Amino acid sequence: MGRHLLLALAALAAVVALTFLVDPFTNVRIATVGYMLLAVAGLTVLTGLTGQISLGHGAFLFIGAYTVALLVVYVPSLPFWADLLAAALVAGLAGLLTGAAAARLHGPYLAGATLALAVGLPAITQRFPDFLGGSNGLGFTVNSKPAGLDIPTTQWQAWVVWLTALAAIVLLANFTRGRVGRRLRAVRDDEVAASLAGIPVGRTKITAFLVSAVCGGLAGGLQAFLLGTAAPGSFTPALSLGLLAAVVLGGIGSLWGALWGAVALVALQAGAEELAHALDLGTDVANNLPLAAYGLVLIAVVMAFPQGIHGLVRRMRPATKGAA
């Protein structure tokens, strides 16, 4: 616990220092890496540590974002930290129900069920346009910056996002290294052997869904806080596929891999947008260019470094020590 906490404090100090050196738009991207890190870390627990393939993780971000948006719009008296807590709790409940329903599903059946969740859930906004804002979503403003703090709003938002994300990552790191984490790995490696060893396989899978959903809901709430809006267009199946690609790119089963995957996800998105603008591509092509970039990079990384970016970093350490 102490080591993880010290690493998190060092990372937070580095982020705070970095935000003083860049422009407001770059601060938004830094904050985006923060909440993406949390979302990818949650999916890492579900897919990397437990072996359950989910194509619908974006649905939990949707739940978290809309929970925060609804509370800010309709219950403005609540403090922002309470909105985030509610987002995590509501998404966790959704994950608990999803995990219970999907506990007996495996492989493509589980992937298909979670994909249906990602496709169908945002459509609810069209059924209740007056309450959920329809296709345009809900816009709002969170005035959380302390009075007298003379820094740009985006810089403050980056601090809040990374403070929340790193606190959650510390808890997640201790969770995955404890007894429950060992159970998750046992279920991933061999469900029959895990069951014979007395591990409740179904309950362990549901726990993984619960933890993953809480992280996703918190990430979605932070995204809504950063962008000041919650709209169904931000939570398409492409988001879920991108998160899964980030898990593989970074390194399946590693929280460090979640960091590399989040950085790669944001960098590829930004690079694709800049390329589309430079080439003056049409809207349809520009919208699908990031997905093509994810696919190409994913194929290259899997072929060259099967254990992802973090696996490459770990392989480079002995070489560096040997050269020294």
From TrEMBL:
<feature type="transmembrane region" description="Helical">
    <location>
        <begin position="156"/>
        <end position="175"/>
    </location>
</feature>
<feature type="transmembrane region" description="Helical">
    <location>
        <begin position="81"/>
        <end position="102"/>
    </location>
</feature>
<keyword id="KW-1003">Cell membrane</keyword>
<feature type="transmembrane region" description="Helical">
    <location>
        <begin position="289"/>
        <end position="309"/>
    </location>
</feature>
<dbReference type="InterPro" id="IPR001851">
    <property type="entry name" value="ABC_transp_permease"/>
</dbReference>
<feature type="transmembrane region" description="Helical">
    <location>
        <begin position="31"/>
        <end position="51"/>
    </location>
</feature>
<feature type="transmembrane region" description="Helical">
    <location>
        <begin position="238"/>
        <end position="268"/>
    </location>
</feature>
<feature type="transmembrane region" description="Helical">
    <location>
        <begin position="58"/>
        <end position="75"/>
    </location>
</feature>
<dbReference type="InterPro" id="IPR043428">
    <property type="entry name" value="LivM-like"/>
</dbReference>
<protein>
    <submittedName>
        <fullName>Branched-chain amino acid ABC transporter permease</fullName>
    </submittedName>
</protein>
<keyword id="KW-0472">Membrane</keyword>
<feature type="transmembrane region" description="Helical">
    <location>
        <begin position="206"/>
        <end position="226"/>
    </location>
</feature>
<keyword id="KW-0812">Transmembrane</keyword>
<feature type="transmembrane region" description="Helical">
    <location>
        <begin position="109"/>
        <end position="128"/>
    </location>
</feature>
<keyword id="KW-1133">Transmembrane helix</keyword>
<dbReference type="Pfam" id="PF02653">
    <property type="entry name" value="BPD_transp_2"/>
</dbReference>
